[in-house]
Amino acid sequence: MLFNSLSFMVFLVIVLALYYSKLFSWNNKKRMLLLASYIFYGLWNPPLVILLWISTVVDWTAGKKLAIEENQRKRKMWLLLSMIVNLGFLAFFKYGNFLLENFTSCLYAIGVEFQAQPMDIILPMGISFYTFQTMSYTIDMYNRKIEPARTFLDFALYVTFFPQLVAGPIVRAKDLITQFYEEKKASANQFFWGTFLLTIGLFQKIVLADTLLAETSDTVFGSKDVLHSLDAWTGTLAFSGQIFFDFAGYSTCAIGIALMLGIILPDNFKYPYAAIGFSDLWKRWHISLSTWLRDYLYIPLGGNRNGIIRMYVALMLTMLLGGLWHGAAWTFVIWGALHGIYLVVERLLKSKIKIKITAYNGIFLALLTYMLVNVTWVFFRAREFVTAKNMIASMFFMNTEGTKVLQSFDIIKVLVVILILFTSHWIMRNTSMKAVSKKSNPILFGVFWAILVFLIVIAQGSGEQFIYFQF
Amino acid sequence: MNLKLSFFVTLILSLVAIVSWECYWRYQGLEPNIDDNKNLWANQRAKLENFQANTAIFIGSSRILYDIQLDVWETDTNTKPIMLAVQGASPIPVFKDIVEKTNYNGLLVVGVTPGLFFSTLFPEASPIKRPQSLVDYYYNRTYAQRLNHKLSVPLQKHLAFYRDGDESWDSDVDLKTLLNKIQLKERSEPFYPPFNNFEEITLERHMKMPERMITDTAYANTVKEVWKTLLGGDFPPPEREATTNAFVELAKKFKDKGGQLVLVRCPSSGLFKEAESKGFSRDLFWDELVKKADVKSYHYMDYEQFGNLNLPEWSHLSTEDARFFTAELIKIMKEDGISFNSKTN
């Protein structure tokens, strides 16, 4: 089920009505939320709920054993079981065809002719999110960082909680399971703020991403021609905005919906396009994934404890795997590699040059960071290397002879939206929506909110899927 | 901050704005309208899973969609018509689906619009891609998508501004479509003239030409302008042999299953008739297809009563004439020995 759909609106009203009715005890409310979460997922593809159940049962069992087992070898075996099941799901469902293709290519390279039929596998929605979330539980249990979930119901709800099930934020057990232990009820202010966040999230997705930017980005990246520089840049900028609004929109909806239930989810985005440098970017973009990769990949790989070279290797590996997490294609690996290189270069430069950040050089550096991020988006969005190559060539060699695929108004529309996006990120860089809202006049705030609602309604949207569902 | 106050301000202002928006569009002459979208098509396709003995299926493009009036067909033949024609499309992907994925072996009427039927078999070309995407959608649609459609129907029926079209030609008034109508300096391809709505469809995909197309000539002429632009463009040469052979192969399989296949060439006039006569000569295209497929066929030019029909925009019949066309066609088919209900699932 998609947040930007009529069925979800009906679903949410029913869930909220049941949640706040006096019909159920807290345990039964949690059961209701769990059932609602399975319905939320199952309305897309019912049989794939089984994967959620397997992941839940395996990690619940592993977690329980890890809580009591003292034998280190056995503890490792339980952790391994959890990893094999979760990463096995990922490997099969997400990377099956990619691995097969590359295996075939390798055989071909050494002269062995092997024809493999691509497997007809459905990619379960949000599999990368819930497997990472549930794995964090067993890893933390293994490292004795958390207490086991008190009941199976609490754990199952942690794995399946519908607001963040299919596209995050990837929440750690310590931050979410404990919230299920005692009855939760949103205060009036929390409920209204949650409703506002849901509105903002839907506005980002339906109006900004789908209505204003998606078509331009699709036209440019769908073209087989070598494009005019202006078209290539406009398409790339449009995608940078589209993916931010699409993904941040989902996260904002998720946080808002959870808050309407009295559950607090962590922030996933903090105005990333105002980041100064790439370390800063990854503290602002998809925060729940970057902290996951930091805690469960970068630090176990040695982090910065084993010298500079090992640190750079760990950083590159983390970013390469982070790229691959997004999709089973080499273009995503290149995207990750570019981010890894940016991070390495930034650390090298920071060790040599000290710059005091001021408002003037800050905005220049933020703009530079944003432009470099745009280069990586080309690889992220292009389905084939040849498209990415043509786009980069058009962008950097000022190709004025290339094909023009965009009309004047498309270009103006995208540039205006992106200018507003960048400026608002810069202004909001060190604050939050909540802080700004507190200083606002409630009536003016209501007018602003009503404009968002009106634009969502007239944009209508066609229930476009969120980009990150495929990851 | 008092969020409760903000919330109620939002509620009131949003309601006022939405009601005003609805009134504005109604004042502009827009009426609530069901969209001929993928869900409507998929719901009709689903009926084939449990078809009745007296089912008749129609495939083809928009001409058969407009020109066969399903209520007339149902009354005059005592059959249950299922309309699976797709606007701007070749019938081959849908025909292939019916032949290969269903047990249907009743009456199948294929509308032949030469420019689309003989155009191509290339999967990425729009006459093939569009119907194939509907077939794929039917198989892949989720329960959530079905539910969304069910919930959207009452909104489509009661709100003029709420549209749910899939195609660029749908006359939606959503924000994206409205923005796309803004034309500044032409930079890439030439701007198309506005494509005004000329469809009224029911949930059963019974299509009618809106009355305005008959009473308002200037309005009908805007559609003609679109056709002029479209027909003035460059088209690859038709793939006559390939499309004919692909169809004939499917026709043979369908007939082997016991199915009764009928070809119908619906009327055209004006620029369309001219272009079709020049580019798709009857003997080379239609006659050859009929001969190879070896099925009953009906070309509108062969019947005197179809000589003076009203096609307000050259390609589709006015509702009144579509009713006449349907009734007359049934008479002709009956005289020709077409059986309307005989098969069982």
UniProtKB/TrEMBL annotation, chain A:
It is found in: Cell membrane. Keywords: Acyltransferase, Cell membrane, Membrane, Transferase, Transmembrane, Transmembrane helix. The chain crosses the membrane at residues 7-26, 38-58, 78-95, 121-139, 151-171, 191-214, 243-265, 324-345, 357-380, 405-422, 443-462. The keyword DNA damage does not apply. It is a multi-pass membrane protein. The keyword Membrane applies. One of its GO terms (biological process) is alginic acid biosynthetic process. InterPro entries: Ac/AlaTfrase_AlgI/DltB, AlgI, MB_O-acyltransferase, MBOAT_fam. GO terms for molecular function: acyltransferase activity. GO terms for cellular component: plasma membrane. Belongs to the membrane-bound acyltransferase family. This is Membrane-bound O-acyltransferase family protein. It comes from Hanstruepera neustonica.
Automatic annotation (TrEMBL), chain B:
It comes from the Bacteria. This is Uncharacterized protein. It comes from Hanstruepera neustonica.
